[in-house]
Amino acid sequence: MDTKITISKLNFYYGKNQALYDINLEIPEREVMAFIGPSGCGKSTFLRTLNRMNDTIPIARMEGKVLIDGKDIYAPKTDVVALRRKVGMVFQKSNPFPKSIFENVAYGIRINRMHQNKSDLEARVETALKDSALWDEVKDRLNTSAFGLSGGQQQRLCIARALAVQPEVILMDEPASALDPIATQKIEELIVTLKKNYTIAIVTHNMQQAARVSDQTAFFMLGKLIEVNPTQVMFTSPEDKLTEDYITGRFG
Amino acid sequence: MEHRIIDQNLDILRDKLLLLGGTTETAVHKAMRSLTERDSDLARMVIEEDKLINKMELEIDRLSIEILALQQPAAHDLRFVISVAKITPVLERIADHAANIAEAAIILNDEPESNQVSDLSLMAQIAGEMLQAALDAFTSEDSDASRNIIKRDKEIDKNYNRVFGKLMGIMSENPQTTTTAAYLLFVAKHLERIGDYVKDICELNVYLTEAAFIKHSKKKK
Predict the structure, then answer these.
(1) Which of A113, A136, A193, B199 shows a CA-CA span of 20 to 30 A to A102?
(2) Model pTM score
């Protein structure tokens, strides 16, 4: 398995507070890596360093390197917009634009001028909606408001929106935490399907979810990366006592 | 360390397994006594008490499934539930062998006394010690102890082969003792099987403690 993202000696600060300490990690291509850990352990902050989402926080400061396909994404010449197209993100709370279902997915394609003509745009939207397992549910009402969709559908719409601009990496921050078990199951099935074509990193508090969808699991605590191992190892015989205590619910 | 909801259930599961283990040990011991002391009433008691052991097995099965379904154990907790669930039927089989020995005792006690019984007592003693030590090792999660117990199974096998040869000889020399010798052979075989089952328990303790599968591997280190 090739490495898609290499993180080395990453330190991260919010003002004087250090949030991440000397993180070294390799994220394999076309696999799912789950980040787990107690609230405030830095896992979401870490996820956001992978497409420079923390850039918008004025007091934030980062040291170290994040290489995607061998290229330093924090190099001065980096086109951040292109980076975020390549590394898409899905958040905990679905955040569709106040537009139609079609326009939500078409938006990124339009602003990136990825389509050749109207029918190409339509085809791209259809593909994204199919890949996010939403097409069958919305194909007859593409021009109705995205807010008319259920929570689970809205979340899959956000995934479709991310897929529409043809990313290579998808970051997911608690993508199913606000969803019921059936909608959650659909998202999880989708994650497993998507890894054929994308590298996925997912932050989740739901340990069973990490166990179900991920190939590798990374455990963070107090800003430190404690253990990374194949998920099957993490949940049956973790190497570190802290991991064991966390996944068996002794703290956190 | 915080108290977790699962802890209470794991404690109950451990207690139930140890109770089953203790009852099984007693069954083996009583079955052998029913033979050495020619006490058929005791033998019948062992057969009767096997029903209780079967009931205990079902209870542990139910609780293990419940913990897996409702508490979703991971890591050491998961390995603990899995090892208990796998040790339980092993103990139940050992108890079945004890009942079978008791059945043989009832028949043997009606035959003339054989002086081969003392050889079997030795095998039973080794098997009993191994079983007790295996359960102790499980309780203290001592995988080194388990590995040492596994090695002792060879002693039982050696004794079994010796007893087997002796009894075969007796049968061909004195055809009128065939019934006795045949039943003593059964008893020897049951004891030999108990040794194998104790080995399984030890292997499961190594899994619990080290997350290592040593069953079917040549290297037991």
Answers:
(1) A193
(2) 0.86
